[in-house]
Design a protein that fits this description.
Radius of gyration: 25 Å
Strand content: 5-15%
CATH topology of the domain at 149-164 and 410-596 and 637-650: Anaerobic Ribonucleotide-triphosphate Reductase Large Chain
Number of helices: 27
Structural class: alpha/beta
CATH class of the domain at 149-164 and 410-596 and 637-650: Alpha Beta
Number of strands: 21
Strand order of the largest sheet: 13-2-3-4-5-8-19
């Protein structure tokens, strides 16, 4: 028997029985029966066994499954002790879905795919050894964090760490185009290369001249952004890792770009095939001025990037539209067209109802909160990465005359439920920061020099979180309640504090800071002022009890940190970002990211298998009332929770909004009908903007026929 010849298994049937209530009760025990059957029928008979850890590792190296250098950083005795420690932790998967996902997607298999070569403990061990880079104490600490599922590396890192034949450890990439053919050509090549090595690619088209704009030295006019979008879509379709996965990309355009209507139309179901994009994601860059114009129901001007760059001497993305809007309107040298702002706002909402797109990036909000020198101009495939970029200049032979900075994403996540049970919260977060630092230091994307350069000088990472709704339910707090808001505030303050502490320590050890540290709000101390002034002592007795035994930094602690950072600097330009969670949240037995669950028993359609059911983590008679579906919840509660976390996160968060096509009565006071309208989405976007939300990811709509519009189908960038 092998994994390819399995017959008469019972675990799918047992798992499916969860979805059939017995006497009005969910038969959760059936999931545990499915888990036991999965190991008995699938895992145990098909796992290659070895007499010792040393024998296993030697075999994996000799057969080209495992890299040798990282193993040789440690003595055989230490490796044996690490594996022995992991075995003694008595790790157990808590659900059938968790085990099924791990063994199906993450465990190393033989070349013919018939046998497993790894257990969960093995994958944890190889991750710990790889990220610790020879540091035995750190390796043991990371192993402890991961086996207790307090820390979860991003999927590319967790999957590939230590493997001989592997993809990159980083999750996704961001590149910008400037307004010339050389930059476009170089950008398409970069997208091909980045899609080949894995990960989603974000591209901003905002700098490109609009359709009809003049081309110097030619009688013709520019074709605008639409043909460039099609070129990128074809590039991702072609560069798909030999058919193993669909290349994934998102294109961003400023809402004041003259091609914005065509851009949005490209995603409509009835769009002309000449402009329709089927697989590209769309994102819109939204300055504050757009919200002002829509609020006042005024007309808005769209500005030619070509004439703006000619007048201002910098690419369109680097002009502050909100600040310069009136000057741009008055300037006769700027080509412009006029439309109604609310008409465009409604077009955005219509498309979000139909497809879930576009993502929204509140670019001025992001830049106001940005503590480092430079300008944020775009985001990534999942809208949580917000880092400064500098434009490149490419010559006629596709060489860089000016090397700008583009972005690679090095991600990981805390599991909130488990981290709150850590014996040392600060030590845990500091170890996670070290693991992510190894990924950024080891990353070397030479095929795209602007990304290689940006990573080399900025050392960016993105530590996030998953399981917030699970934590709330487990501790009997309603999502969005005052208690839940206070918990979120303190938790993310702690993540911020301890990543800053470790970034400072690493800068001190390496005698190196991120590029332009001296121009940052960290260097002059202004970043720390709000923390020094605010008291984070819990006001609710319940929250105080939850944080019992966890040190909450005082004003004096923040002051001391500020002074230390002034002296030694920080190693990482960016440290925090909350990515979405895919299959890895099931393995961690927790809810995805920070948003509410969508169903008590989640239904997953698996290829070739059919439906698999996943009961919400820690679901019981005590927690069931606190597991309200996101589709039945006021989205302002979700926005409030995310906005609270956002105060402490230097980058962004993948915040999805969940709507029903027929909205239950009583959720929104402005509703006079149950039917979802564009006005609902407009109001929620303005609410999010006013709350300080930097980005909105998908709008997911649950329709009358139980379909979900706008479900995230991209696995390349998720944790």
């Amino acid at each position: 028997m092998s994994l390819k010849t399995l017959k008469d298994v019972t675990y799918f049937k047992l798992n499916n029985e969860i979805n059939r209530p017995v006497n009005g009760q969910i038969p959760l025990h059936k999931d545990q029966e499915a888990l036991v059957a999965f190991f008995k029928e699938n895992v145990l008979p098909n796992t290659v066994t070895f007499s010792s850890v040393t024998e296993k590792i030697n075999y994996l190296i000799e057969e080209d499954y495992l890299e040798e250098p990282f193993i040789r950083n440690y003595s055989p005795e230490f490796i044996e002790s690490l594996f022995d420690f992991l075995a003694k932790q008595n790790f157990k998967f808590k659900s059938f879905m968790a085990a099924y996902k791990f063994y199906g997607q993450y465990a190393l298999k033989t070349n013919d795919g018939t046998k497993y070569l790894e257990t969960y403990e093995d994958r944890v061990a190889f991750n710990a050894l790889y990220f610790a880079d020879g540091d035995e104490e750190l390796a043991m600490t990371l192993a402890e964090e991961m086996i207790h599922q307090r820390y979860q590396p991003a999927t590319p890192s967790f999957l590939n760490a230590g493997r001989k034949r592997r993809g990159e450890l980083v999750s996704c990439f961001l590149i910008q185009l400037t307004d010339d053919m050389n930059a476009i050509g170089r950008g398409i090549n970069s997208a091909l290369q980045l899609s080949r090595i894995g990960g989603g690619v974000g591209i901003t088209l905002s700098n490109l001249r609009e359709a009809g704009a003049p081309i110097k030295g030619y009688d013709g006019a520019a074709s605008g952004v639409m043909p460039v979008m099609k070129l990128f879509e074809d590039s991702f379709s072609y560069s798909n890792q030999l058919g193993q996965r669909q290349g994934a990309g998102v294109v961003y355009l400023n809402v004041f770009h003259p091609d914005i209507i065509s851009f949005l139309s490209s995603k409509k179901e009835n769009a002309d095939e000449k402009i329709r994009v089927k697989t590209l994601s769309l994102g819109v860059i939204v300055p504050d001025k757009f919200y002002e114009l829509t609020r006042k129901n005024q007309e808005m001007y769209l500005f030619s990037p070509y004439s703006v760059e000619k007048e201002y001497g910098v690419p369109f993305s680097y002009v502050d539209i909100t600040k310069e809007y009136d000057n741009l309107v008055k300037n006769p040298n700027i080509r412009k067209t006029k439309i109604n702002a609310r008409d465009l706002e409604n077009e955005i909402s219509k498309l979000q109802q139909e497809s879930g797109y576009p993502y929204i990036v509140n670019i001025d909000t992001a830049n106001r909160a940005n503590p480092v020198d430079g300008k944020i101009i775009m985001s990534n495939l999942c809208s949580e990465i917000l880092q400064v970029q500098e434009p490149s200049l490419v010559n006629d032979v596709q060489d860089f005359e000016v090397m700008g900075t583009d972005i690679s994403c090095n991600l990981g996540s805390t599991n909130i439920v488990n981290l709150m049970e850590s014996p040392d919260f600060g030590r845990s977060v500091r170890a996670m920061t070290r693991a992510l630092t190894f990924v950024t230091d080891a990353s070397d994307i030479a095929v795209v020099p602007s990304i290689q350069h940006g990573n080399k000088i900025n050392h960016t990472i993105g530590l996030g979180a998953m399981g917030l709704h699970t934590f709330f339910a487990k501790n009997q707090m309603e999502y969005g309640s005052p208690e839940s808001i206070e918990f979120t505030d303190i938790y993310f303050m702690l993540l911020n504090y301890w990543t800053l502490m470790e970034s400072h320590q690493i800068a001190k050890e390496k005698q190196e800071t991120f590029h332009n540290f001296e121009k940052s709000a960290y260097a002059d101390g202004s970043y720390f002022e709000s923390y020094i002034k605010e008291d984070y002592t819990p006001t609710f007795e319940k929250i105080a009890e939850l944080f019992k035994g966890i040190d909450i930094p005082t004003a004096e602690d923040w002051e001391a940190l500020a002074q230390a950072v002034k002296v030694d600097g920080l190693y990482h330009q960016n440290r925090l970002a909350v990515a979405p969670n895919g299959s890895i949240s099931y393995i961690n037995d927790t809810s995805a990211s920070l948003h509410p669950i969508t169903r008590l028993i989640e239904e997953r359609q698996e290829k070739k298998i059919g439906k698999i059911y996943y009961p919400a983590a820690h679901l019981s008679n005590e927690t069931i009332n606190y597991y309200k579906s996101a589709y039945d919840m006021d989205m302002r509660k979700v926005i409030d929770v995310y906005a609270t976390a956002q105060k402490h996160i230097d980058q962004g968060m993948s915040m999805t909004l969940f709507m029903r096509s027929e909205i239950p009565a009583g959720i929104y006071e402005w509703k006079t009908t149950t039917k979802q309208t564009t006005r609902d989405l407009n109001i929620l976007r303005h609410y999010a903007f006013n709350k300080g939300i930097k980005t909105i990811y998908y709008i997911r709509t649950f329709t009358d026929d139980a379909e979900e519009i706008g479900s995230n189908q991209c696995e390349s960038c998720v944790i």
